[in-house]
Amino acid sequence: xxxxRNIMRPWGLAAAALLASAGxxxxxxxxxxxxxxxxxxxxxxxxxxxxxxWMITATALVLMMTIPGLALFYCGMVxxxxxxxxxxxxxxxxxxxxxxxxxxxxxxxxxxxxxxxDYIGSLDRMFLSGLTLTSVHDLAPTIPESVFMMFxxxxxxxxxxxxxxxxxxxMKFSAMLLFIGAWSLIVYAPVAHWVWGGGFLGGDGVxxxxxxxxxxxxxxxxxxxxxxxxxxxxxxxxxxMAPHNLVLSLIGASLLWVGWFGxxxxxxxxxxxxxxxxxxxxxxxxxxxxxxxxFVEWALRGKPSVLGIISGAISGL
Length: 317
Fold this sequence. Notes:
Elements: H1 2-28, H2 30-43, H3 49-77, H4 83-110, H5 145-163, H6 173-196, H7 200-203, H8 212-230, H9 246-265, H10 273-301, H11 306-316
Helix pairs in contact: 3-4, 3-5, 3-9, 4-5, 4-6, 5-6, 5-8, 6-8, 9-10, 9-11, 10-11
């Protein structure tokens, strides 16, 4: 027995030494290390927690712009009898745009439309098909696609909500819902795809960092056309249509101001230098525009007004 042990012991030590040297060689082989790193980089998530945290915050800020910000701003501007109607319009628009976004709008904007991609996306992403816990979108590779989807949804909510201010005393609630639903699909979705979703405007170099075209020009034209088609309000020029509570409008404008940091800085889709610069420019432009409007009104009418200064702030935003 002792003889056998003595004979096997050197072979065992030799085998152990051979395995150890082979393992060390593999560990020190740069080819193996590089290959391993490439595999890790391929499967590792690209999610940045800082960017994600900021974009979640920005999403909440932009949603706050519609409910309650825009709702309060419009409620203070109208006559007392229209307050509940205006508030209901903003709230219902938020709900309707949310459901449409989940069902089809996101797909129409941010999917590849194939031969029609210059003009509209496809239906491949209906009901958020393909969106998973770890999926990312090409336009926002450092945050989850779910966060990107939610942030873009807040734009699809506030854009038609902006138009509802043109419907006061002009349109029934049921007609307003039909208009907003149709407009979101027929107008907003194509225009957003043209600029942000890979359509022909973006391909031709059109720049829209935070919705100047997709949101503001789009909503402004729609509101103007709606007013022209529907006609003036009943009693216009005869009845007193002065704002009934400018305190509500002031609160609403303040919420819009704060929410706009999410709107503009969030459009950087990251928490980096562009977001910081967008936030700084937003604050300076808003304060300057508000003061300019106030002083011009003061010079022309002899005194400033709450309506004037908040109108200036909104124009600066």
